[in-house]
UniProtKB/TrEMBL annotation:
The lineage of its organism: Bacteria, Pseudomonadati, Pseudomonadota, Alphaproteobacteria, Hyphomicrobiales. The keyword Transmembrane helix applies. Keywords: Membrane, Transmembrane, Transmembrane helix. The chain crosses the membrane at residues 21-42. The keyword Transmembrane helix applies. This is Uncharacterized protein. It comes from Mesorhizobium vachelliae.
Amino acid sequence: MTKNLGNAKPSAPAKEINPSLFSKAAPALFPLVVAALGYLVGRHFLGF
């Protein structure tokens, strides 16, 4: 195994990474999308 000498350059500086609004909102919207798809599939195939 090699030792971590701490002199490696980071691949991208932290200040240049700006998460978009979609990437912030996607985890919150995911359960709603799953529920909506489940409702539509259930209504189509099971006749809810």
